[in-house]
Amino acid sequence: MFVDRVKIHVKGGNGGNGMVSFFRAKYITHGGPDGGDGGKGGSVIFIGDEGLNTLMDFRYKRVFKAQNGEDGGKRNCFGKDGENIIIRVPVGTVIREAQSGKVMADINKAGEEKILILGGKGGKGNQHFATPTRQAPRYAERGRTSKEYDVILELKLIADVGLIGFPNVGKSTLLSMVTNANPKIANYHFTTLSPNLGVVQGRFGDSFVLADIPGLVEGASEGIGLGHEFLRHVERTKVFIHVVDAAGVEGDDPVENVGKINRELEEYNSELLKRPQVIAANKTDIPEAAENVLRLKEVYEKEGFQVFPISAATNKGLDELLSAVAAILRDYPEDIIFEEEYEEYDEVAVDIEPFTIEEVENGYFVVTGVGVEKMIGYTNIETEKGFAFFQKYLKEKGIIEALEEKGIQQGDTVRIYDLEFEFWN
Predict the structure, then answer these.
(1) Which of 44, 130, 362, 387 is the most exposed place for a label (fewest CB within 10 A)?
(2) pTM for this entry
(3) Cα separation of 103 and 346, whole Å?
(4) pLDDT tens-digit profile of 219-249?
(5) Which domains are assigned to the chain?
(6) Would you say 172 is a known binding-site residue?
């Protein structure tokens, strides 16, 4: 089975907490602070792997978590960093944030690495907070909580040449004749469900990768059938071989069929019709094809499309077709990479850090949330400057307003993780 779209959950490792500790030894009962720092959490890293061509493995494992950093220890011992998690994906994989649909990464090359989530920073031990006037700080930073996302992996085939056309026109047969690919071939009245890749070797010029794109149907650009899934693979091919049943075996008109497929390409992405395209008029071993070949040439050659009469079943005309395609590829600009125009992921706009407020008993309110926890972790509220920042944060994030909506009164108690204070506003 070919799998080209899956949803998974990824999470970076949290940073280890800093340690609150004081040096103790024989005859030393009031030593200085010696709490070590927490280790950094592991990152989530995606790598393009040319040995993979499907997302099948992700059907069985959907959750990927990097290792948390270890907490700091006594005597200035640092916590161990968490191990990164490496996720290997096929080249051509697009990674989208599931909620917004925006693109977080696009893996286009073998060996390309993308750090999708950085591991959380380790918290500092209490040794860092000693001052001449505050020599025994009983405070250490918590490790930063790393981010986590639901992401969608989409695989788009990257091929030099794509075979396009309606189902049952001979694309799979053509692929099998000119490459070592072995697609299933029969007189099906439905389309191939999985893209197939093959390499055309040598005698037609430089070798190139040829993809049999599953057959399109009318309405594919609107998502009818598996239209969008199939059209996704068309976007990353440089040249199209438009295969058409010149004999009209199914009773339809090959001239009209070419126009129908091109309209689907244009409606899905207008840039697709700007790419080089040649028409392979297939099944010319059937006598009825001769007249339709002439009609195809009359209509489409004046539009700039070369028309090649072929028979994929008997190898007729294949050398001429593939030689022309190889010549197009030789003149193709190296610096052009066709990509979908998409909106990139915006960390600020998309990522939100909600908080919750609960009145656990009369006059006692508890505030929790990732952002609040981070703020407490890196703010020393025992200083005047730190306390001012703390008050500003609570107001800007709407926490003061939310507490008032919950009915908090002057003098009530608020708890934010390990911090408790009386509410006065």
Answers:
(1) 362
(2) 0.60
(3) 9
(4) 434 444 444 456 766 777 889 999 998 888 7
(5) 5-155 (2.70.210.12), 159-330 (3.40.50.300), 352-422 (3.30.300.350)
(6) yes
